[in-house]
Amino acid sequence: MTGVLSGFAVIAVVIAVGYLLGRRGTLGEQGREVLTRLAFAVAGPALLFTTLARADLSVLFSSRLLVTALSTMAVAGMFVAVGVLRHWGVGRTTIGALCSGYVNSGNLGIPIAAYVLGDASLVAPVLLFQVVLVTPVALTVLDLSGPGGKDSVGRRLLTPLRNPIAVGSLSGAVVAAAGWQLPGPLMNPLNLIGGMSVPAALLSFGMSLHGNPAPGRGQDSRLVLLSVALKSLGQPLVAWALARGVFGLHGATLLDVVVTAALPGAQNLFTYASRYRVAESLARESVLLSTVVSVPVLVGVAAVLG
């Protein structure tokens, strides 16, 4: 249980610092927006590029990842179906779908995998799946649904190449696939810049909590509760059913995929929502609530399957 608690403690402290900054107005009225832009346009792409450039892309082809991918698509599809029926709009539905299935595989997933599962590399497949496939697709949808959604067909096809997060992810994947070893003078500055990504996103998230209603009580309360239920309960259950009933996984491998599915929503989802100015309260409240709810869920999963 040490990994679960220590991972959450680190995140909670940084978010609390962000809240205090927002409450005291230390960074000024534009402080949160500047941090969001920094994380989205500069630090985030650098982190994704350096991570993927050194990654072993072969881990994308495994039964573990297939379970994660299918469970992600299942819960995201459920949210999209409800969103279409309720006419929630493309932007809100996309953010809600991400909150329902996009797990915090980085700053929470790595320590939890290291201490609970005994191997930090076990989160690598889901990390790669999300940044190589899920993120570029979701951000392209947000780009196309925005004010520029009536662009020409050619400009639409080039949409992913205008998005810094997608460019960073895809460029890193190309470098890894080609087997290139980039020199230190190039990688070291990118590593330094990429190191700002997670702290900037967490601080911005914490600042956004000041002056806003309690989670689940705002205008998007139904969307928030649905996404949290799908993320915290639905995805682990779907992953367990697929892993056990379809792929025949058991023991440590079964624990691995269920723990991964039970991770809460990632804080960078709020960065994406803020960048596109859509469903910001939904992303903020859903990530916060799923993080809180995931503590007992992860402890329960580790106790039952561990």
3D architecture notes:
This protein has one domain: Na+/H+ antiporter like fold (Up-down Bundle). The mean pLDDT is 83. The N and C termini lie close together (11 Å). The chain has helices spanning 2-24, 31-53, 63-86, 90-101, 109-117, 124-145, 153-157, 164-178, 184-194, 197-209, 221-246, 251-262, 268-276, 280-305. It has 306 residues and is an all-alpha fold. α2 (31-53) crosses α9 (184-194) and α13 packs antiparallel against α14. It is globular and about 55 Å long. The protein has 14 helices and no strands.
Would you identify the CATH architecture?
A: Up-down Bundle
**In the CATH hierarchy, what is the class?**
Mainly Alpha
Basic shape = globular
The tally of domains stands at 1
Biggest beta-sheet profile = none
Oligomer: single chain
Helix percent band: over 70%
Find the structural class using helix and strand composition: mainly alpha
Taken in chain order, the helices and strands follow as HHHHHHHHHHHHHH
In DSSP terms (H or I, runs of 4 or more residues), the helix count works out at: 14
End-to-end Cα distance: 11 Å
Radius of gyration, rounded? 18 Å
What portion of residues belong to β-strands? under 5%
pLDDT average, as an integer?
Answer: 83
Q: Indicate the CATH topology.
A: Na+/H+ antiporter like fold
